[in-house]
Structure formats: C-alpha cells, structure tokens
UniProtKB/TrEMBL annotation:
The keyword Signal applies. One of its GO terms (cellular component) is integrin complex. This is Integrin-like protein. GO terms for molecular function: hydrolase activity. SMART domains: Int_alpha. Keywords: Glycoprotein, Hydrolase, Integrin, Repeat, Signal. Residues 1-33 form the signal peptide. PROSITE patterns: FG_GAP (PS51470). Gene3D superfamilies: 2.40.128.340, Integrin alpha, N-terminal. GO terms for biological process: cell adhesion; integrin-mediated signaling pathway.
C-alpha cells in the first residue's frame, strides 16, 4: 500500500596534436568572451544531432578484463526519447581517451556533459579517482575531457591529474564560467581537497588554484554552481562533512572568483548542516539562483544553529533551500521540508534518505524551477529500500507555498505503466538527472536504480508528458557487457 500524499519540494595534458587541439577548444576565444555570466543553456548533446544525451558512469564495470576499471555509457536522445537510438561505451580502452584501463581506476565515478568550447557539442568530463599516475603514486586520480563528435568520440585529454598518492582527483566535478570571462572553468573534488582549473587573460593562461583543503570525511565533496551573489557571474557551492575525522563537523560554503588574487574567495557559510546532494534552481521564479541541500541534517554537536530547520526534519531526510536575494544577501530567506510536510508524497521514516539525490527542471513550464528528489531508502509497501523519487513543484514562495504546503508527484516502480516491480534494495532514486531528451520543449527525468536485477542496475526515463509510462534502460537492453554482474548501473548520472 502506498504511503499517503498529504493534501494541505570542470593541468596536465599529453603533447599530442589531438590533445593540444582539445585543450585550445576549452579556452574561450577573446572575441566571444562575455563580461557577464553565460546564460546560454549548457547543452548535453554529445553527438550533435540536436538532442540532449545522458551519460551514465559505471566505475565498477570491468574493461579489458580489469575489474573496476570503469566506463561511461552515453545514451543517445532522439525524437522518441532515450533508449531508442542506441548508446556507446567510453573508457580508457577507447582510442581517443588517454591512459589505459587498470583495475580500480573507477573511470566514471563522476560524469558531466557540458559544452565547454562553445561549438554546440558537449564534452564528456569524467573523473577516475583510482587512476595511478607515474611519479605521483597510486590513486592520484585524473579528470579526463573527451570531445564530442557526430560519430564515436572526439579527441580526449587529461584536464588535471592528482598531485600525489591517494589524492583521488575526480571524485566530483563541476563546470561553469566562474571567472566571468565567458569561458568554462572546471572544479575538481578529490580526497580532502577541491581545486579549480581556470582559463584567464582571455584564454592565454591557465590557473590551477586550491579552493579548499581540509578533512572531508573520506567522501567526495559536493559541488554545484550558480550566481548566488546576484552579480552576473557564477559562484561555487561546496558541501562536505566529517564524523570523528578528526572531528565531527559539517559545512556548506559559497565561493566567488577574486580576480586580483586569482583564486576563489569564501563569501558565505552555513555550518553544522550536512548534505548528501546540492542542486541550483530558481524555485520561486524571482530570477535569482537558489540552493537546495538534499538529505540535509545536523550532525555536529555544537547545536549552534539549526541550518536544516527543525531537528525533527532530519528523520528520513529533509530538503533545505537557501534563497537568492536581489541585494546579494544570499540565504536571508530559507525553507525546509520533508515527507511529513503537507503535500509531500510519503511519510518521513528513518532510512528513507529523502533528498539523497537532486535534479532541477521546469516541469510545468510556469517559469519557476521544480525539483526532483530521490529517496533510495524508501520502502514501497513491505519492500525495504525499494526506493522512490518525488517531483516537488515550485510556487511563488518557493518549494513551499505561503501556507507551508508543497505540491508533489511520486515516481516509483509500483506505479501504473512503470516497467518492473519495486523490490527490496532496488534503491530506485539513488541518482536523478533531467534533460529534454526528446526535444519537445520540456525536460524529462532519468532515475537510477543501481540495485535492480541483482545489482546489475537500471535507469528509468520519465517523459514530461507522463509520470507513468516510463522507459527502463538496463545494461542487457543496451547491450553492455556482463549485465548480470554487480555493475550498479544508474548510480552515477550526468547531473549527479
């Protein structure tokens, strides 16, 4: 029986010609540089057919007999949506990709499709945190950029390699114009460190600068970008938390580019609030970027503040939203909701992990962004951790209206015309992504269920026109090798 809906939410490169060409492509031409933030949509069309594509990272996949070498599956969009036009597999065994597959590289642990060069084709940005680098050590990590192409893949290069053993560069990646020159800069998360690779001086120079180095609890730092200072240039949101490593602490911080110092400067902090996901959107339609913290909870012992709202909202996971302010006072207004909020599908229960993944879209085309929140621990009936996702609609006041109520739509495998059946440990909702994969003018939603089919995994694609009637993309259906092994397909999607 379904829980009720309450009725009352981006340096080091090889010296080949192909690599040099790609590196130049990633630097903005002075003639096209813009002083203000780039408002052009960030295309995810890798093959140039006019349709958005989906990148699925499979870091646990075996390549050339090397366990957990990892690969990325690029699924093509088309007039009928994802899953009907085939896909390609990209790995370090692909001719254009630098390096070679080695056990434990975990190529695909972070994936991003972004048009970095402005040529209309998306580049594939891939993190391989387990990459061993000669002279630097094991698990130094690497971030690889692979050029888009109409057929196959374009030239690839290492955008950045970890400086030392266990740096694990590539745990997380983000790309945006953070310097305000019209180009795309890369932010790379590693073990206890976040760095930025920026093109400066009209693309004539590259700067690699450390954003933050501090204990991060042995997990990937969360990265998101948006114009939080309302100055026309993108900023960086960074979240991390530690538990007894060496202390218990949790932070969400905002960083903006300081041109004089050629580095990122910390401009805003919210301490004591731990998050599992970040997402940026304009949820109240005021033209300003807002920041959503998924599965937000307080873990520090100081009890200085309640950055995620009432402590009771931590039960089962909650979503906390910091809203933009026209005068630059970001976070002056905030909201928090969970599955006990009126209008939100389900009931808040320990282990639900509501908000563990987040993705943004304007589902109903009303000019306000909406939010998809995964809850991979949600029980469907008696099936523990079958998982679900919830679409939360934006209102004039944000994800919660002036009456303190929300509007939501549930996604899970026990809904009519959704392929498959909700089963224990499917973990549906572990990752979510959005894109207009069928080019009908409205975004669609992709939901990962890495525990499906004995952990072979799968991705469910919901077209905008129907929350039900989705398409299931499984490794077997896509012709991927070893579909019955523990691939966890669907754990890493291009907006995750």
């Amino acid at each position: 029986m379904e829980p009720p809906v309450h009725r009352r939410t981006y340096a080091l490169a090889a010296t080949t010609a192909a690599t040099a060409a790609l590196a130049l492509a990633l630097v903005p031409h002075p003639a096209t540089a813009r002083p203000a933030a780039d408002t052009t949509p960030l295309t995810s069309d890798f093959n140039g057919d006019g349709y958005a594509d989906l990148a699925v990272g499979v870091p646990d996949g075996t390549v050339s007999g090397k366990a957990k070498a990892g690969y990325v599956n690029l699924v093509w969009g088309g007039a009928k949506g994802l899953g009907r036009y085939g896909s390609i597999r990209v790995s370090q065994a692909t001719a254009e990709v630098p390096g070679s597959p080695e056990a434990g590289d975990r190529f695909g642990a972070s994936v991003l499709l972004r048009d970095l060069s402005g040529d209309g084709l998306a580049e594939l940005i891939v993190g391989a945190p387990g990459e061993d680098v000669d002279g630097r050590g094991a698990d130094a990590g690497a971030v690889v950029v692979v050029g888009g192409a109409k057929h196959g893949t374009g030239p690839g290069s290492n955008a950045l390699l970890g400086p030392s053993a266990r740096s694990a560069y590539g745990w997380s990646v983000a790309a945006a114009d953070l310097t305000g020159d019209g180009g795309r800069d890369l932010v790379i998360g590693g073990r206890d460190k976040v760095v930025m690779r920026a093109a400066v001086d009209n693309g004539e120079n590259l700067v690699v600068t450390t954003v933050l180095a501090t204990p991060m609890g042995g997990r990937a730092p969360l990265l998101a970008t948006g114009d939080f200072t309302a100055d026309g240039t993108d900023d960086l949101a960074l979240a991390y938390h530690t538990i007894n490593a060496p202390s218990t602490q949790s932070h969400v911080r905002l960083w903006t580019w300081d041109e004089a110092e050629r580095r990122m400067a910390n401009t805003w902090n919210s301490d004591n609030g731990a998050a599992s996901a970040l997402a940026v959107g304009d949820f109240d339609g005021d033209g300003l970027d807002d920041l959503a913290l998924g599965e937000c909870r307080e873990i520090a012992d100081e009890n200085i503040d309640d950055p995620c709202g009432p402590e009771s909202y931590a039960k089962g996971g909650g979503i906390h939203i910091e809203y933009g302010d026209a005068k630059g006072s970001f976070g002056l207004r905030s909201q928090t909701l969970n599955q006990d909020t009126v209008g939100v599908y389900g009931v808040a229960e320990d282990g639900d992990r509501f908000g563990a993944s987040l993705a943004v879209l304007d589902w109903n085309r009303d000019g306000r962004d909406d939010l998809v929140a995964g809850a991979p621990g949600e029980a469907i009936g008696t099936r523990r951790a079958a998982g679900a996702a919830t679409l939360l609609l934006g209102h004039a006041g944000g994800l919660v209206d002036k009456y303190g109520e929300a509007t939501s739509v549930p996604y899970h495998q026990d809904r009519p015309r959704v392929p498959g059946v909700a089963e224990t440990n499917d973990a549906f909702g572990t990752a979510v992504a959005t894109g207009d994969y069928d080019k009908d003018g409205t975004p669609d939603t992709a939901v990962g269920a890495p525990g499906e089919n004995a952990k072979s995994g799968g991705v469910w694609v919901f077209p905008k026109t129907s929350v039900t009637g989705s398409v299931a993309l499984t490794p077997k259906k896509l012709g991927l090798p070893s579909p019955s092994s523990a691939l966890s397909y669907g754990r890493y999607l291009s907006s995750h």
